[in-house]
């Protein structure tokens, strides 16, 4: 009897989870025709009632990097390429330091007890990282003042 209840319960949970979309529904046709040489993906980042705008800086070889006077250097390779006969495109990214470009330090980065307790970036509340933003172009010092005051 308990096996039957377990089976029914797992079936109900599977059906409920399957009905929840992992991504927002797409109102357009996402197929790529053979004639479409340059398909462009549509980014749909949504959080709460608003959209998420990625303000990360583009990674470049000369981007400043902690501990390097020469910058980031080569960081991206394509060891497998369909253009060279591979079955798939596989990229490889290696950073000399994670202190490159736009990033968020984990709470445990500077507080040892947080590190020991496992406070990493996955433990940050997105409400802390998302919010109102300045709507004018500002010099860096103005922006830093805004962040400190906020």
Describe the overall structure:
With 150 residues, this protein is of the alpha+beta class. Among the domains are: 54-103, no CATH class; 105-150, no CATH class. The chain has helices at 2-18, 112-117, 126-129, 140-149; strands at 46-47, 50-51, 76-80, 90-93. The strands form two sheets. It has a two-stranded antiparallel sheet. A hairpin with a 2-residue loop joins β1 and β2 (50-51). The radius of gyration is 23 Å and the shape is extended. The model is unreliable at 15-24 (pLDDT under 50).
Keyword list:
4 strands, alpha+beta, 150 residues
**First and last CA, distance:** 59 Å
What integer value in Å does the Rg equal?
23 Å
Largest sheet properties: 2 strands, antiparallel
Overall form: extended
How many E strands? 4
- Write the H/E string, N to C: HEEEEHHH
Individual helix count: 4
Q: Widest sheet: strand order?
A: 1-2
| Sequence stretches where pLDDT stays below 50 over 5 or more residues | 15-24
The helix fraction, in percent, is 10-25%
Mean pLDDT across every amino acid position: 72
Bin the strand percentage.
Answer: 5-15%
Q: Find the structural class using helix and strand composition.
A: alpha+beta
Signal peptide: 1-18
GO molecular function: arylformamidase activity
Keywords: Extracellular matrix, Secreted, Signal
Family: Belongs to the Cyclase 1 superfamily.
Task: Please summarize what this structure is.
By secondary structure, the protein is an alpha+beta fold. The chain has 4 helices and 4 strands, in the order αββββααα.
């Amino acid at each position: 009897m308990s096996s039957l209840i377990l089976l029914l319960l797992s079936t109900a949970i599977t059906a409920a989870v399957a009905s929840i979309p992992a991504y927002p529904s797409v109102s357009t046709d996402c197929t790529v025709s053979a004639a479409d040489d340059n398909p462009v993906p549509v980014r749909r980042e949504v959080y709460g009632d608003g959209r998420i705008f990625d303000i990360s800086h583009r990674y470049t070889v000369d981007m400043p990097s902690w501990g390097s006077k020469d910058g980031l250097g080569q960081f991206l390779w394509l060891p497998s390429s369909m253009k060279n006969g591979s079955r798939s495109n596989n990229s490889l990214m290696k950073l000399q330091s994670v202190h490159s470009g736009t990033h968020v330090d984990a709470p445990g980065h500077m507080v040892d007890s947080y590190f020991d307790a496992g406070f990493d970036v996955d433990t940050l509340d997105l409400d802390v990282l998302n919010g109102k933003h300045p709507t004018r172009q500002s010099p860096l010092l103005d922006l830093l003042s805004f962040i400190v005051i906020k």
